Amino acid sequence: MHEQRATAAVASVLVIDDASLVRLYYRQLLEEAGYKVDEALNGVEAFEKIAVQDFDLLIVDINMPKMDGLAFLTALRAQPAPAGTTPALMTSTEDRDRDFEAARNAGANFYLVKPVADELLLRHVAAMTGVRQ
Known about the structure:
It contains five helices and five strands, in the order βαβαβαβαβα. By secondary structure, the chain is α/β, with parallel strands linked by helices.
């Protein structure tokens, strides 16, 4: 007879944003909710992290230096699984229809306009990672 583990697996989230305050805010919020969180400053750094670790969810800002969120997601979606199929929640201060369309075309699974309310972000992260809150 095998013994079942009492604890569920912890979902891992990579926050990709060039704003240190945003990364810190998301990290604190998500870690308090029980997620494992890592950070990247831009798409280039995110690819470096994804090369050595699998993530359950990516939270991706659009406007970043070196490689913005749209270019990052477009390139990521061309990669094989699991990296290329990792769910991505795109965030931005941009709220025009063309911004939503560009995010969807790049491969975002969902788009939220900043500032994102705590509860809204946690609800979407839970839904996208399959973690019950």
